[in-house]
Every structure is written in C-alpha cells, then in structure tokens.
C-alpha cells in the first residue's frame, strides 16, 4: 500500500487515467468558473447597478432580495449537480483506474 | 471515571463562578462593554461610525429626544443557569463516551476515519456556523437590513471551492494535516515545518477572535466577568479536546448543529406564522415599522425626514453597511478561497472513510448551512420589526443579542416562563456553538504542532503511538492555555481585523500552495515555502496598514467635529441637554488622548484603502508561489507529482478505500 514499487509515471500516462483526470479537470474548472461568475455578479450589481437591485418585484420585495435567494439556489444546484455527476460518471471511471493500479501493484 | 469526574468538576466550577458572578452583578451588563466581537468582518465597522454620528445627531434635531431603550435583557437566572448546566453535562457526557474509545493518534486526530458522510455533514455545519454566523448575522440584519442577507452569500459560496477543489483530493491524499499532503510532493522538512507554522498562525487569529467573542458573549448572556468567562470556557474546552479528541469534538459539533437548526427552524416558524407564512406581508410589516424607518433615517444621517423618501423600503435595499463594491469583491475573494484552506475545516475531511462520503458530507452541510443562513436573516428582520433596531443596539452595539431577544419575544415576552425558557435555550445553544468551533480550532492546531512539528520534523516520524498520543494531548493542553492567555490579553483590542485576517491569510498562502500541490506538476518545495511565507506575511502586512487598524488621528478628527458642533451650539446661546454635555466632555477627552497618536505601525492614516486585503494579497500569494517554484526549487521533485496526482484523483491507498 505504500506505493513504493508502483510505476507512478507509467500509470500517469495510462489512457484510463488520462481520460479520468482531463475530464474531471474540465468539469471542475467549468463548474467553479460558473459559480464564481454568479457569485461576483452580486456585489458588482449591488455596487454599480443599485437601481436594478431596488426594482420591486413582489410587494416590497426587490430584485436584490431575489438575487440573493437565487445565489443560494445556484450554489445548491452546483452542489447537487457535482454530486450527481461524480456518483454516476466519475466514480465508475475511478474504479476502473484503481483496478489498473492494483494490477500494476501486484506485478 | 477519573476523567469524567474532572470534566464534571470543571463544568460545575464554571457554573459556580457564573452563579456567584451573576448574583454579585445582578445581570448588569454594560452595553459599552459589549463590542461586536463575535461578528468579525463587518459588525464592528458600523459601531464607530454610529458612535461618531450619534452625539452629533441630537444637535441637529433638538426637539426629538427618544425614550431611552432598556440596556439589558431581562433573563430568568434560574432557568438560564440550569440550561447552561444541562448543556455542559450533555457535551461532557458526549466527550466522556468518546474519550473511552480514543486510543490511537488516528482516533485522536480523525476519529479513526469512522465518521459517516451524514454525520460529517452535520459536523461541518457545526464547525462552520459560529456564534458570528448565528448571533452576528441576525444582528447585522436587524441593524442594516438587506445587507445582512447579502453578507451571508460570501461565506456560503466558499463551500463551492471546498466541494470542488478541497474535499475529495484532501480525503484521497491526506492523513491528518495540510503538511501530510504537501510532504507527498517533497521530502523537505522545511515544507512540513512551514505548513505547521502557517496552520498555527491562522488558527490562532481565528481562535483569538472566537475567544474574545466567547468572553464578551458570556458577559452579555450570563453577566459573568470577562476574565472568569474566558478561563471557564477555556478550561472546559481544554478538557473536552484533550480527552475527547476528534470523536468528542465531532459529536459535540453534531449535537450543536442539530440544536442550532432546531433553534433556527422554531424561531422562523413562530415568526412567519404571525403572517400566515406570507413573506410579502412580513416584509411589508418590517418596512412599515416606524422605529425601523427612524433608524434608517439616522443611518443615512438625514437630520429631517426627506419628503417622498421611503425609509422603510430603504431597509430592504442593500448598501446601508456594505458600501464599497471593490471592498465587497475583495471580501468575497477571501471567503471564496480562504474557507477552503482553513486547517480546522480541512481536517474534517480526514474523518470520513472515502471520497464519496467526503462529497456527501459537503453537500449535506451546504443544505444545512444555506437554509440556516436564510433563516437567520429572517430572524434578523423579525428582530428589527418586533425588538426594533434601537433596542437591539442599546443592549449591544453590534446587534449580537438580536436573536436571543427575539426568541424571548416569540416565546411570550420577558417574564413569561416560555419566553425565558426559549431565551435561555437560545443562549445555551450559542454557548455550545462557541465550544464546538473552538474545539475544532484547538484540535487542528494541536495536530499541526504535535503531528507535523514534533513527530515529523523533530523526531523523523519515529515516536511510537503512546508517545505521539501524549504529545498530541500535551500540545492541545498548551494551545488551550495559550488561547486563554491571549483571550484575556486581547479583551480591549480591536479584534475585528483578526478574522478578516485569518481568511485573507489562508486565501493568499495556504490556498495557492494547496491548489498548486494538488494540480501543478512543476510545483516544488521552493514554491511551497515562498508561497506560504510571502503570501501570508504580505496579507498580514496589508491588514496592518488598512483601515481595520485604529488610527488615533482619525478618532481625534471625529471627536474634534463633535466638539466644534456642540461648542458652536453653545456659542449660539442654546442650552445643551445633559447627554450633549456628556458627549462634549467625552469628545474633548477623546481628542486630547488621540490627537498625537499613531496606529500600531506608526501611521496617521491607512495606506491601503480597503478593509479586506484579499484582492491584492491573493494575486501576490499566487505569484510568489510561482516565482519561488522557478527560483528556488529543483526539477527533481516533479517526479513525486505523478503519485500524488493519481492518489488525489482516485483515492488509491487512502485508508478505508479497500472495500471499493
């Protein structure tokens, strides 16, 4: 288990692992950027577009209030989507890669 | 058994001190003493602004002298004390159970990796929802309206980074600390040492904020003198952490999170049921409240009501507190990247068996924390409506008592059994919140000191289990003692900048280093050490010259304005009211005391205009890590990347993943 006998450099070039980490990286970076854009829009709108934020939508509840609620919703959706995609796509792929590593370790 | 008795003894003595002090003091809590210590980043800011404008205001509108608001919360001492005792017994029992099964260092630091995803999710919520979140955000909302809601989005967003970047890789590659992950990239002892020092520094900033907050809060809630409160809370914590380890801490955090959620849900339901769960009607009532409108007018410094200005609606719009958008983006950056590198949060991911549970635990904690934050802001608006911002501020400038006061009102009001019971319950939960958060911090620092510094740097990882356990416990004990001493020393200090600092330092040192270590092949020991030191020190430096520090000349200038305004009024032949005379005297004294003063680093005015250094220090942190990699590192260490990269992506070899 200490991994001293494993040819890590060779494994790093294994097509299964390359597929796993490139796809995972793209997925994470995209999701994180999407989240960040959504997040920084809030202070930017609050600071530079106060008229928009003040617009009443429902009774006295204004655009700013719903924007904040939307931020919470967006963050939750990111979390759930990430969990869904990891469970159904990345976990099976990871298991394949671990099988490859274990074969390598037993050599 | 002996341990349990010790726990009980300390718990009981804490209560006795508390009881004696309460009897002596008759719950006299001076509002002046209650600085907004628990609300780190924001709430202490408004206090001076209001303090400065408050004396000036009556000068402009002499006709209006509002009835003085009560300066303390009326509590039922018997009920409050028994509630606190119950909380101490409950947490003590949990820790006692955990202590029995804590035998190895793995048990002590990570509960043997045997915490489930669901349990860890609740524990993360317990770790992250500090008294600042519960009491502080309710307070900010009750005083500044919509900005309280806006403020919650940052800390909540930080979980996106935790979930996407930190949780699973840490679980897959780490063992107890950040040092463990970094040492997979380089055998350098300097790296492990630097990681440990950085973890201790960051945790200490965070810890001082929490300890001072705890002391002020106990003072406010129970009327215990500040020093006894710090010693009592500190002693309790040391016993909890030393014996209970991660298992005890985790369960205290879970129980606290459950109680906190219970508090939040009950209060929100009791509040909204008054409006038939119609949010529009609720916010209508808030905006229509005359005290709220008056309060907004004084925040805006409108001496006389401006015709056609809807002050009530203004309370529902942002910008009463968070004014500078660049500062807000900077604060957002600190939250977004900082929380992900906090040692005590990172440590939580080592307690679960695999990446899947780490993922599950973050998602669960996000559901809990998000819904709690939405509820807390409603509680804040409820406090503005029913308690009034004026009354909230009369008891505590930072608004920390808004939520407890509202709970008393919702239970039936002061003097009713249900009201006092609910108040006592909410206060006891706030107390458990402090215990849960600070235990996590002490545990994380003791892991850095004992596991990284002692075992791996000084002793080459040779000590056996027994010795490692001993060192771990001794270091927790020492850190607890240091925390008590610092808490007492910092009572009068302006600690508002400390938590801002903790987040900013982490975002500009630990986070870039962790990110590069996990994802960048070329990264090496040179980059790690440069990134940790330059990023961290630069962030600290920027805070030292930022407006967070106290600038005596600025205080003197404000005092001078008050003196001039009141003297002009006197010269015009008007008689000053008693409070105006008091304000005049105080302003004269303030002016004399501060006119030749300088800030801690000898400045007359801040060099850096923003309160949050992240927007500058984060790029500096990343750049220094990159530069250090190229200047001081060797390419030989690149070879170690493949192993770490495969491990962090797959979880191969991580304890507990055998049964995939």
Describe what this molecule looks like in 3D.
The complex is a heterodimer of chains A (107) and B (660). Chain A starts with 7 loop residues before the first helix and ends with a helix. Chain A has a two-stranded antiparallel sheet with strand order 1-2. Helix content of chain A is 82%, strand content 5%. Chain A has helices at 8-12, 15-48, 50-54, 63-106, and strands spanning 56-58, 61-62. The longest helix of chain A has 44 residues, at 63-106. Chain A is mainly alpha-helical and 107 residues long. Chain B is mostly helical and 660 residues long. Chain B has a single domain, classed as Sodium/glucose cotransporter (Up-down Bundle), CATH 1.20.1730. Helix content of chain B is 73%, strand content 0%. Chain B has 26 helices and no strands. In chain B, α16 crosses α18 and α21 (496-519) runs parallel beside α25 (614-632). The longest helix of chain B is centred in the middle third of the chain and has 47 residues, at 226-272. Classes of the chains: A mainly alpha (107), B mainly alpha (660). Chains A and B meet through α1, α2, α3, β2 and α4 of A and α7, α11, α14, α16 and α26 of B.
Low-confidence spans of chain B: pLDDT under 50, at least 5 residues? 1-66, 656-660
Chain pair with largest interface: A-B, 55 and 58 residues
Q: What does the main sheet of chain B amount to?
A: none
List the quaternary state of the chains: heterodimer
């Amino acid at each position: 288990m200490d991994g001293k006998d494993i040819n890590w450099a060779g494994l790093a070039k294994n097509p299964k692992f390359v597929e796993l980490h490139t796809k995972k990286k793209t997925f994470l970076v995209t999701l994180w950027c999407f989240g960040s854009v959504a997040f920084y829009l809030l202070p930017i709108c609050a600071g530079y577009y106060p008229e928009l934020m003040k617009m009443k939508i429902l009774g006295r509840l204004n655009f700013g209030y719903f924007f904040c609620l939307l931020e919470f919703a967006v963050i939750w959706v990111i979390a759930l989507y990430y969990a869904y995609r990891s469970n159904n796509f990345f976990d099976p792929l990871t298991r394949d890669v671990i099988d490859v590593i274990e074969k390598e370790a037993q050599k | 058994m002996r341990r349990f008795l010790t726990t009980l003894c300390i718990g009981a003595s804490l209560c006795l001190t508390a009881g004696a002090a309460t009897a002596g003091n008759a719950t006299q809590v001076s509002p002046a003493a209650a600085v907004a210590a628990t609300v780190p980043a924001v709430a202490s800011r408004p206090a001076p602004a209001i303090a400065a404008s408050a004396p000036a205001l009556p000068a402009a509108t002499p006709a209006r002298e509002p009835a003085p608001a009560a300066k303390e919360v009326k509590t039922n001492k018997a009920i409050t004390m028994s509630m606190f005792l119950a909380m101490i017994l409950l947490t003590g029992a949990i820790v006692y159970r955990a202590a029995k099964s804590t035998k190895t260092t793995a048990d002590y630091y990570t509960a043997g990796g045997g915490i489930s995803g669901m349990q860890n999710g609740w524990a993360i919520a317990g770790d992250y929802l500090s008294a600042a979140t519960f009491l502080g955000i309710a307070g900010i909302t009750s005083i500044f309206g919509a900005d309280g809601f806006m403020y919650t989005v940052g800390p909540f967003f930080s979980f996106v980074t935790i979930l996407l970047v930190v949780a699973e890789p840490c679980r897959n590659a780490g063992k107890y600390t950040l040092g463990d992950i970094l040492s997979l990239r380089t055998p350098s002892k300097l790296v492990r040492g630097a990681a440990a020092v950085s973890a201790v520094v960051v945790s200490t900033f965070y810890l001082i904020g929490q300890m001072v907050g705890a002391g002020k809060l106990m003072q406010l809630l129970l009327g215990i003198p500040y020093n006894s409160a710090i010693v009592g809370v500190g002693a309790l914590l040391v016993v909890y952490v030393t014996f209970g380890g991660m298992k005890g801490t985790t369960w205290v955090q879970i129980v606290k999170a459950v109680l906190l959620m219970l508090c939040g849900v009950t209060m929100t339901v009791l509040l909204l049921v008054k409006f038939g769960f119609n949010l529009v009607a609720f916010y209508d009532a808030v905006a229509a409240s005359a005290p709220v409108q008056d309060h907004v007018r004084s925040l805006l410094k409108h001496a006389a009501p401006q015709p056609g200005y809807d002050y009530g609606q203004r309370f529902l719009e942002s910008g009463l507190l968070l004014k500078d958008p660049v500062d807000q983006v900077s604060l957002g950056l600190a939250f977004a990247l900082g929380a992900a590198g906090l040692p005590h949060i990172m440590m939580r991911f080592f307690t679960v068996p695999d990446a899947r549970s780490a993922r599950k635990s973050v998602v669960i904690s996000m559901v809990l924390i998000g819904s709690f934050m939405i509820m807390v802001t409603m509680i804040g608006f409820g406090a503005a409506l029913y308690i009034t911002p004026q009354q909230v501020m009369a008891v505590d400038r930072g608004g920390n008592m808004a939520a407890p006061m509202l709970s008393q009102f919702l239970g039936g009001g002061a003097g009713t059994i249900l009201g006092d019971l609910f108040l006592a319950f909410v206060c006891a939960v706030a107390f458990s919140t402090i215990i849960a958060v600070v235990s996590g911090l002490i545990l994380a620092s003791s892991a850095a000191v004992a596991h990284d510094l002692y075992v791996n740097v000084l002793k080459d990882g040779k000590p056996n289990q027994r010795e490692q356990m001993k060192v771990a416990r001794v270091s927790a004990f020492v850190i607890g003692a240091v925390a008590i001493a610092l808490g007492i020393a910092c009572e009068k200090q302006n600690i508002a900048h400390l938590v801002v600092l903790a987040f900013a330092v982490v975002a500009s040192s630990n986070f870039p280093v962790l990110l590069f270590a996990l994802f960048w092949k070329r990264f090496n020991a040179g980059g790690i050490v440069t990134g940790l030191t330059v990023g961290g020190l630069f962030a600290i430096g920027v805070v030292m010259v930022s407006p967070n520090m106290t600038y005596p000349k600025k205080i003197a200038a404000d005092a001078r304005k008050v003196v001039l305004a009141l003297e002009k009024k006197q010269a015009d032949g008007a008689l000053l009211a008693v409070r105006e005379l008091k304000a005049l005297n105080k302003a004269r004294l303030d002016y004399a005391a501060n006119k030749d003063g300088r800030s801690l680093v000898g400045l007359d005015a801040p060099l850096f205009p923003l309160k949050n250094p992240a927007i500058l220090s984060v790029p500096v942190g990343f750049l220094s890590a990159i530069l250090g990699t190229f200047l001081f590192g060797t390419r030989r260490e690149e070879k170690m990347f493949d192993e770490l990269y495969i491990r962090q992506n797959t979880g191969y070899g991580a304890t507990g993943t055998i049964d995939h």
